[in-house]
Amino acid sequence: LPCSAAANLRPGAEQKVVFITARVHPGETPSSFVCQGIIDFLVSHHPIAKVLRDHLVFKIAPMLNPDGVYLGNYRCSLMGFDLNRHWANPSPWAHPTLHGVKELIIDMYNNPKINLEFYIDIHAHSTMMNGFMYGNIFEDEERFQRQAVFPKLLYQNAEDFSYSSTSFNRDAVKAGTGRRFLGGLLNDTSYCYTLEVSFYSYVLGGTAAAVPYTEEAYMKLGRNVARTFLDYYRLNSLVEGPLAPTPK
């Protein structure tokens, strides 16, 4: 289909939604730069971005903990809560941003015209290098294998993304996180991840030298995350003209 006639945008058609959140932990500033890279790319005139906008709906909450960020907190909100442990039952009074986002996600999940296919929560990591992902563990082996597809594609697009550091777990300590809670709530066509990026550096494949992260490098990772949806949904043939590279 030409972009203007994309099935995702026809009145009454099912919408494929990618939901992205960031900065639930105020001190993890790299997550904001990664999220900014995603947003800047998606609203750009890049031919890949145009195809993605025609075929997918992106919902982005770039700062889940604005009061914690304003106060300069490292992990908690104004009320002293680690919001990423309260997804199961967020309070509209104590955790208002989390409550609002969760309500929106549940409303979309219950809408038969919306298919919420991805949830990605962006964080920064203080001890590990590179970008990497956490995913969930499922009893269904096929679902577990399908969940590995997106990080494998991202590894091919982003030189600073490490698939070897990507892991899938059901650690009890993480039970209240967005990735764990929504992974248990949404159906088997939805994939929930935590995207982590190092606070300090990354190592390129085949080398041992650490490359310091910069604001631009974080935003480049964000652009590559957005670019990977083109590969995941096999939309490459719809990009007009020669396939332009993702901005470096």
TrEMBL record:
SUPFAM superfamilies for the chain: Zn-dependent exopeptidases
Active site: 196 (proton donor/acceptor)
GO biological-process terms attached to the record: proteolysis
Pfam families xrefs: Peptidase_M14 (PF00246)
Keywords (A to Z) from UniProt: Carboxypeptidase, Hydrolase, Protease
Boundaries of every Peptidase M14 domain copy: 1-233
Molecular function GO terms recorded: metallocarboxypeptidase activity; zinc ion binding
Cofactor(s) needed for function: Zn(2+)
UniProt-listed PANTHER family: CYTOSOLIC CARBOXYPEPTIDASE, CYTOSOLIC CARBOXYPEPTIDASE 6
Family: Belongs to the peptidase M14 family.
Record-given protein name: CBPC6 carboxypeptidase
Species classification: Eukaryota, Metazoa, Chordata, Craniata, Vertebrata
